[in-house]
Amino acid sequence: MPVPVPQQRDVPAAETPHGADLTVLVIEDDPAGSITGPELSAAAGTRVRIRTARNLTEAGRLLTDDVDCILLDLALPVPTTTAATTATTAATAAPDHRPEPAPGRADELAVLTHVLRIAPLHAVLVLTAQDDTELAAEAVRVGAQDYLFRGELDARVLSRAIRYAVERKRADLAQHQLTESGLRAQENARLERGLLPTPLLDGSDLSFAARYRPGRSRALLGGDFYDTVRTPDGTVHAMIGDVCGHGPDEAALGVELRIAWRALTLAGLCGDQLLSTLQQVLEHERQSEEIFATLCTVDIAPDGRRAGLCLAGHPAPLLARHGRPAGLLPYEDGGPALGLLPRARWPRRQVELGAEWSLMMYTDGLIEGRVGAGSSQRLGQDGMVAMVNSRLEQGLVGEELLEAAVAEVRELNGGELTDDVAVLLLGRDPERIRRRGRSASRPGPVSATSTTAAAPAAASAQRPPLYGP
To answer: What is the pLDDT of residues 234-275, one digit of tens each?
Structure first.
């Protein structure tokens, strides 16, 4: 079957908006279809270079990365060896997401199926008889970009069809990559959300709130980590930490340290013994000896009036007692960050909390923001204390307090913070505890949905909302 050759003509540069040459591989076995000119100028101005293959074996040798489009004659016979190879490849290769030919059309489209399998990134034009429109349409459904009838070809139709097929294939590939990227992003988001902590506070009288915002663009998880659990003796343990760096490796290490901390805490470890074991975990799991992590842990007694504090190179928590301004807890007895000194020790300091209080634990991302667009001055711990006291005077507590504090830090910085930010707020309110006790002591109907006495605590143990994009 002779393929018409686009006529040569001089084309001004203004008429060649794309300017890029196209290489077309013609696969047909009609000797009369030989094209002798190695490089042709299409009617629409795009230069077309023609290669001709007489069978699929020769086409496989000529099919290189610089081929833009394949012009395939559907009447080309499929050699038995090629058909057998195609069947074997289809059985062992990764799943092909292209549609299968309709029943009864598989043999007629065998040559197209083979070409699509060996050239998944190339545009494909098929040639068919004019009276077989159903076969032509089926070829497009299976994966070809367009079809042409043998009896209606001329230079302009051919050149236009080649350009259309190439652009449509590019668009299809771009859409496929975009879809895959979206699915991958969704899967990563589900994975990262699953790695965020779910505080275990069932049975505790303490309130809990948290905010988390990773510094990495489009990420849900950063190098900051935190967790809160209540052990069977009634003690509430809370932890917040920061792995140096902002990449996915640091985020993964933060998750490992958080899970290790929870397991060690539930196993009964506390204070220096727990932090020494966590340091061993970090030393084994980090990618480089330069990686370290800061950590702050508190263990609050069952009566909620006192706590033990351990600092490993981490900023001291902020304590607000009823009727007093908020202030930083002592940090002079703190130890070094995990991963810096092989035989370091972390003393545990006893802290009196009182009857009514709020304890805010945070990472340095909250205090290292700027205090004005273009300013070099950092907010710092003193600025954070003043900001929190101002919000407390406005009557903000719990979730509202954290939301306002993080929003103000972001506003002072003049936009998004570059570092990860994690903030955790625990509190004890005697009046709230008394109200809960009275409501729990009232008799009421027993049902399958009201058998959990710790419903408020369970509600507070949900994953905290993410802050930021």
So the answer is: 999 999 999 998 778 888 899 999 999 999 999 999 999 999
Contacts of 367 (CB under 8 A, 6+ apart): 315, 378, 379, 380, 381, 383, 384
Runs of H (alpha helix) within 39-154: 56-62, 80-92, 110-118, 133-142
Q: Give me the amino acid identity at 238.
A: A
169, containing H or E segment:
helix 155-195
Strand partners, 308: 299, 350
Beta-carbon count within 10 A of 161 CB: 18
DSSP, collapsed to helix, strand or coil, labels residue 381 as helix
What region, left, alpha or beta, does residue 384 occupy, with left being phi > 0 and alpha being psi -120 to 50 degrees?
Answer: alpha
Backbone angles phi, psi at 367, to 5 degrees: -110, -5
pLDDT tens digits, 2-13: 544 444 333 332
Angle formed at CA 425 by CA 278 and CA 316, multiple of 5 degrees:
55
pTM exceeds cut of 0.85: no
Q: Is the pLDDT of residue 448 over 60?
A: no
Q: C-alpha dihedral over 402, 408, 411, 417, to 10 degrees? A: -40
Give burial (CB, 10 Å; 0-12/13-18/19+) of 194: exposed
| Beta bridge partner(s), residue 360 | 318, 425
pLDDT digits (tens, 9 = 90+) for 52-103: 998 888 998 999 888 999 999 998 887 665 544 444 444 434 445 667 777 7
**Burial environment of residue 466 by CB neighbours within 10 A (0 to 12, 13 to 18, 19 or more):** middle
Burial 103-133 (b: 16+ CB within 10 A, else e): eebeebbbbbbbbbbbbeebbbbbbbeeeee
- How big is the chain by its Cα radius of gyration, in Å? 34
DSSP H or E stretch at residue 24: strand 22-27
What value, to the nearest 5°, has the Cα angle with vertex 73 and ends 72 and 77? 115
Segment 96-147, tens digit of pLDDT:
566 777 777 888 899 999 999 999 999 999 998 877 889 999 999 999 999 9
Backbone angle region of 380, left / alpha / beta, with phi > 0 → left and psi within -120 to 50 → alpha: left
- Helices 133-142/110-118 angle, 10° precision: 30
Q: What are the helix and strand counts (H, E) for the chain?
A: 11, 16
* Nearest C-alpha neighbor of 305 from the set 393, 248, 236: 236
Cβ-contact 141, 105 below 8 angstroms: no
Between the alpha carbon of residue 15 and those of residues 26, 154, 165, the distances in Å are: 26, 20, 20
Cα torsion for 254, 255, 258, 263, to the nearest 10°? Answer: -140
